[in-house]
Amino acid sequence: ADRAVDAAGAAVHAAGLALGHARRLVGTARAADTAEEAAWTTGPGGRLTTAPDALTALAAATDAQRDRLADLLAATAGGGLADRPRLALTDALTGALHTLTDLPGLRAAADCGDPGCHRAPQGCRHDLTGRPGLGAPGPTAGYRPGAALDRFLRARDRRCRFPGCRRRVPRAGELDHHRPWPAGPTSAANLAGYCTTDHRGKHQAPGWRHTLTPDGTLTVTTPTGLTATTTPPPY
Question: So what's the pLDDT on residue 117?
Fold first, then answer.
């Protein structure tokens, strides 16, 4: 019993030392965080953050920051973004991706195309007959998908579509034509994302059969007749 009491006392003492060390570390971290926040607030970054408008922020910027801003403006053709921010519209029940769009795209789909409707939509009856609406980008004439179609397919599939595979679709390619081009179109209904290994297997493994439906559902049949199906992952 005495040995047990001694061991318990030693354990409590060790725990107290560890807690004291942890408190000192927390105090040091808090002091460092406070000092860093104070340095940020009084530095160029803080002055930019608190500036009431763009001109005041530009005046508060350092020469190096102005040079970087000038380089950015030159690289983006006068300040326009190379690619506008995207909105992913999905099915509320299934989570399936319908389209990638942006605010101009939403506005274009909501009016009839007449300039007067765009300026004053409340005075237009919005005859949308023949309008494309919102959906996957149209097919590309060549072998490689255009930028909008490529972006949509990578957002739709995200990972290799082969059953059981979780690898990312490589950025440089691996969007496979289900029906070989040019007999099959370069379109969302005929393309699926694969990792490099499964892409090669699709074309080189004997006896395997891949079936792709227009909504992106992929069914793989093994040489022995077993089947597995994958759908684009929901959002």
Answer: 73
Total structural domains in the chain?
Answer: 3
**Quick check: is 140 in a domain?**
no
| Residue 34, CA distances (Å) to 22, 24, 38 in order | 18, 15, 6
Angle among Cα 191, 195, 200 to the nearest 5 degrees reads 85
Specify whether 90 is located in the same domain as 68. no
Instruction: Note whether residue 68 is domain-resident.
Output: yes
Q: Which 8-state DSSP code applies to residue 186?
A: B
- Are 203 and 162 members of one domain? yes
Cβ contact 219:229 at 8 Å? yes
Provide the token pair at 63. 């020469």
Distances (CA, A) of 163 to 188, 194, 228: 19, 10, 6
Range of the domain at 96: 85-135
Question: Which helix (H) or strand (E) covers residue 200, if one does?
Answer: helix 196-204
198, 162 in Cβ contact below 8 A?
yes
Residue 210 CB partners (closer than 8 Å, separation 6+):
178, 202, 218, 219, 220, 221
Question: Does any domain span residue 235?
Answer: no
188-207 tens-digit pLDDT: 999 999 998 899 999 999 99
Do residues 152 and 100 make contact, with C-beta atoms less than 8 angstroms apart?
yes
Residue type, 17: L
Q: Is the pLDDT of residue 173 over 90?
A: no
Phi-psi region of 77 (alpha: psi -120 to 50; beta: other; left: phi over 0): left
Q: What is the pLDDT of residues 63-84, one digit of tens each?
A: 888 888 777 776 655 545 556 6
Pull the structure tokens for residue 209: 């059969």
| Domain boundary residue, one of 75, 103, 122 | 75
